[in-house]
Amino acid sequence: MLNRFDHRSYSGEAEIRYLDSDFRVIRAGAYVRCAVTGVAIPLEELRYWSVERQEAYASPAAVMERLHPDRMKPAG
What is the pTM of this model? Predict the structure, then answer.
């Protein structure tokens, strides 16, 4: 296993094990995909994830959309 800073010379998608306050790189890569938007998130910019769901999110808005989709719908 690699630590979170060993990815700099790698390309492609990484496989990550998300932990409570950190993550562990299982398969080296430069990025992971947001579970909501599908956008590539460079590992050095990865800040949001779910330990329970084992998935990454690109932004706080993506977290809210995944965890509370009913709150993200426009009022109407």
Answer: 0.80
On whether the CB atoms of residues 31 and 40 are closer than 8 A, the answer is: yes
- pLDDT per residue rounded down to tens, the chain (76 residues): 455 555 456 889 999 999 999 999 999 999 999 999 999 999 999 999 999 999 999 999 999 999 998 886 666 5
CA distances from 18 to 40, 71, 75, 76 (A): 16, 25, 34, 37
User: What does each C-alpha distance from 68 to 60, 62, 71 come to in angstroms?
Assistant: 12, 10, 6
Picking from 44, 42, 46, the residue whose alpha carbon sits closest to that of residue 18 is 46
Which tokens go with 49?
Answer: 């994830």
User: Which residue do the tokens 């590539």 mark?
Assistant: 40
